[in-house]
Amino acid sequence: MAELQQAHSANGRPAAKVELRRSLSLPLITFYGLGTILGAGIYVLVGKVAGVSGMYAPISFALAAVIAGLSAFTYMELCSRHPLAGGAAVYTQEGFGLRWLSILVGFLIILSGLVSAATISKGFVGYFRVFVELPDVLIIVAVVVALALLAAWGIAQSVAAAAVATVIEVGGLILIIVVASASFAALPARLPEMIPPMELVAWEGIFLGGFLAFYAFIGFEDMANVAEEVKDPIRNMPRAILLAIAISTLLYIAVSVAAVLAVPLDELSASGAPLALMFERTTGASPKIMAMISLFAVINGALIQIIMAARMLYGMSREGWLPKGIGKVNSRTQTPILATALVSAAVLVLALALPLVTLAKITSFAVLAVFALLGLALARLKRVGPPAPGVYTVPAWVPYASTVSALLLLSLQVFDMLR
């Protein structure tokens, strides 16, 4: 049978429990993180961020990078201390020992993965329509079902596919930077437009744009949820998170600068395929090349979010916080089939029900709330005692700074919603 049963072998011993396979090297887990960070944001939302913060969009991305970076350092120590599937839920349990809070955090991360994958699936539609005009529903259903099957096939196969797609999407961002080089020549003359005055209105737009841009950095926390499938996770997880954040930040700043210089802001913010539009405007050529690259990026981001959410369900099931059947690992694929199916079904419903920007805001809100809690969890763990030898550690101020910055960005968004 496909599923492992509580059976006994011929010698009367209990059959071994099927566990996740450690098959991800440092390069693969880095590409996994890069794939979800890049695919989840810049290809879909660069125009929307520019619509909120205008010519100050690069500053919004830089602000988001600082907040994400502080949380990334917090995650680097947490996943080195506890390299287990279940990520944030496990860290919360270790830090606070409160089962209800750990379950809440687990569901917030699952929600963020579901909504993020739905966001990216909707972003897929804009780029796909560069080639073929089909109904939104048909496109979304087809892409989500295909990704669910790939995620269920196996972690090595899924991440290998994600690594190939990541190489393509990084190449696409570099291509955009290269073809927009003429726009960079105008940067010295237009730099005053990109330096905000010390006025509340300007900085309010920058912070609101930063809240939306923060979505573009979501993904490094997903890496923690496959820690049980990483080789030497205590050493490799912190390195992979740092590499993924650093590379994505450099690419985001460069692309956002190119975007606001190359395309009028009203056109950029209205486009469903912003990078394809940039390519067309800067080269005069067909946008289909860039649209094809963007399709790989968008699919990659959604695939990794589905994997992450399924692994979170697996980890919570193993901890006894959810029914055991949800986290059962298939003996042939060594993946949690039921968890993957549940996640994919939820992604499909959300993608069909909500608009893109709303989905992105929900994701950012949920993840920022988790980051604020995890900063406090790490601070508490540090006070309890030193970690095991070989564990990566950060300075004591880092988790507090992570919590404060996440709460500030959350508070600004709540204030804007209530006005």
Task: Summarize the model shown.
With 419 residues, the protein is mainly alpha-helical. 74% of the residues lie in helices and 0% in strands.
Describe this protein's structure.
There is one protein chain. By secondary structure, this protein is an all-alpha fold. It is built from 18 helices and no strands. Helix 4 packs antiparallel against helix 5 and helix 7 runs parallel beside helix 12. The radius of gyration is 21 Å and the shape is globular.
Give keywords.
18 helices; 419 residues; disordered N terminus; mainly alpha; 0% strand
What percent of the residues sit in helical stretches (DSSP H or I)? over 70%
> What Rg, in angstroms, do the CA atoms define?
21 Å
Shape: globular
Order of helices and strands: HHHHHHHHHHHHHHHHHH
Average pLDDT figure? 80
How many beta-strand segments? 0
Number of helices: 18
Distance between the termini: 57 Å
Low-confidence stretches: 1-16
Strand content: under 5%
Q: Which structural class is indicated by helix and strand composition?
A: mainly alpha
Q: What does the largest sheet look like? A: none
